[in-house]
Amino acid sequence: MEAHTGNTMVALPPGRVTLSDRRTRRSWQVEITPCELATVPVTQALYAEVTGGLRPSATPGDLLPVEGVSWWDAVRFCDALSVRDGLAPAYRIRGDDEGVEWDAAADGYRLPTEAEWEYACRAGTTGPHYGPLDDIAWCRGNSGERPHDVGGRLPNAWGLHDMLGNVWNWCWDVYDAEVYGAYRVLRGGGWFDEHWSCRASARRRSHPSYRVDDVGFRLARSLPA
Question: Strand 215-216 vs strand 168-174: parallel, antiparallel, or unpaired?
Answer without folding.
Answer: parallel
